[in-house]
Amino acid sequence: WWSFELLVLLSGLLANPKLEASVLSICLNTASLTFMIPFGLGAAISTRVSNELGAGRPEAARLATRVTMVLGLVTGVSLGLIMISVRNLWGYAYSNEKEVVEYIARMMPLLSVSIIFDDMQCVLSGVVRGCGLQRIGACVNLSAYYLVGIPAALCFAFVFHLGGMVLI
Q1: pLDDT, tens digit, for every residue of 90-109?
Q2: In this structure, is the dihedral angle defined by the CA atoms of residues 5, 9, 14 and 18, taken in order, positive or negative?
Q3: Which of 18, 68, 78, 158 has its Cβ near the most Cβ atoms within 10 Å?
Q4: pTM above the 0.90 mark?
């Protein structure tokens, strides 16, 4: 969560800080909203995998994982398609400024792809927790966000001058 907030703060250093921070906040709010479904799937698969492994049924745990991954993928793709289809309207839920609404519409396809991958990350984190490997999951997630994600976003935004589009 803090990694996203850090990116919103850093968006204030871009060329048009008011627009960039506003749009990035809206996009991250949208991502948080869509995150709730895969978060529930992650919690469910964590419980299911731990119960199946505890009962000595690794094949059942594997099957439950596959089913939940498919559900996560279908959910992510569905949410992504919905976001793309309402991209020209979504900004009006947050702002009546045309510039903000148009920028959000341009960011929605990228946000949609991000939603798909974030859904899968959430489901797979639940699997890792269910296997009792919380430390490994935490290290992977922290490394992905703080050692790879933030530096890459900052590099693209400030070194290659791609702006707020790459901060989501």
Answers
A1: 999 999 999 999 999 999 99
A2: positive
A3: 68
A4: no
Reading the block at residue 54, the tokens are 């505890």
- Name the nearest CA neighbour of 129 among 36, 49, 64: 49
For the CA atoms of 40, 134, 50, 69, what is the dihedral angle to 10 degrees?
50
Contact 79, 115 (CB under 8 A): yes
How many structural domains comprise the chain? 1
Q: What is the DSSP string of 110-164?
A: HHHHHHHHHHHHHHHHHHHHHTT-HHHHHHHHHIIIIIIIHHHHHIIIIIS--GG
* 69-84: pLDDT as tens digits: 999 999 999 999 999 9
Look up tokens 């469910």; give the residue: 44
Dump pLDDT digits (tens) for 118-164.
Answer: 899 999 999 999 999 999 999 998 898 889 988 888 888 888 887 77
Determine contact, residues 107/167, Cβ cutoff 8 Å. no
